[in-house]
Amino acid sequence: MMNESDQDAIPQDDEAKEKNEEFAEISELSKKGYQYLKENRIEEAVDCFNEILDKEGENNYALVGLGDAARKRGSFREAVEHYRKCLVHHPGNNYALFGLADCYKALNQYQKAIEIWEQYLLHDDKNITVLTRVADAYRKVRDFRRSKVIYLRVLEMEENNPYALIGLGHLHYDFKEYKDALFYWEKMLDLHKHDVDIRVLTSIGNCHRKLKTFESGVQFFERALEMDTINFYALFGLADCYRGMNQPHRSLEYWNRILEQDPRNKVILTRAGDAYRNMGEYDKSADSYRKALNIEFDIYAVLGLAVVSKMQGKYDDAIESLRRLVQQDPKNYRLYIELADCWMKKNDRNRAIEALAEFQKLGIRNMFVSDMMDKLRG
User: Fold this and answer.
1) Can you count the helices (H) and strands (E) in the chain?
2) Cβ neighbours of residue 157 under 8 Å, at least 6 residues apart?
3) How far is CA 36 from CA 64, 79, 97, 292, in A?
4) Is residue 158 part of a domain?
5) pTM of whole model > 0.85?
6) 31-73 confidence digits (pLDDT tens)
7) How far apart are CA 225 and CA 308, in angstroms?
8) Which of 103, 294, 357, 358 has a 20 to 30 A CA-CA distance from 148?
9) Domain that holds residue 371
10) Domain count along the chain
């Protein structure tokens, strides 16, 4: 005969069995969902995670999974909601913190990303992936000191960590410390001689451009171009190096190669116009400037046309264009120098001096304007 305690045990066993079955089902759905995410089968993953939430509305794996799925789709604001909901019910969940910080970074909300990553580091202060992300975020908000300290801390933990070396290169480059940037990027080059990332080559080339060591820059941009014959940064770098070396015919070759891919790039059209002008091909130069202006107003294209007019002896046309530009960009010293030069070409020294004096009235000191004024007055 069954006693009272035996009778109570039966429903309890059934309840425990039911809970175990539900736990196993949730666990299986979770595994399937994350496997679907790995395979980029996003919708199937979302179905799995939603099925889990129907059974257990605050399940941390499902909430993080939905956040990860939204993040993979690029729906960062939606992902933020899922991660935040997870953190309400499961404070300190590392996966939710990591995902949330990455979303804020993608939304350019770097200060928020930093706050979240620092929460993460309270639980795991030796996570190199998170430390480099925090350093990157400090770099984005232009906090040089904190960014550098964290990158160097990573290098203490893992010598030659590529993310820290590249980050330090970008950090110093952003703050115009090009020699220091070169040090870190060249270290990356030494470590990866046979499988160097093309971005390291173009970054080194860009340092040489900024340092005006153009001949040195050429070799790195050429190596990059061997890896990718249509790489914009390599083509631009080569064109700009040859421009700096006063070889307009060589720079034009690379400006035109960019224009083959992007014929409506007004910046490149203006640079091509400059190259044609420096080669004395004024009609082609003017045509290139006009193509740029047909896309959108560009002060350098208008300035280029004015300089072409000056070189063709059309001084009054050039003066008229330059005067209009001065009204739009009154602090651009080059406009006043070109204007003064036009007046000198017309043998009117006084008007040339007046043009330069107009700039100096703004209270801006400029070596080129001062030198030209001294020559005119002398």
Assistant:
1) 21, 0
2) 126, 128, 131
3) 14, 17, 22, 48
4) no
5) no
6) 999 999 999 999 999 999 999 999 998 999 999 999 999 999 9
7) 33
8) 103
9) 313-378
10) 2
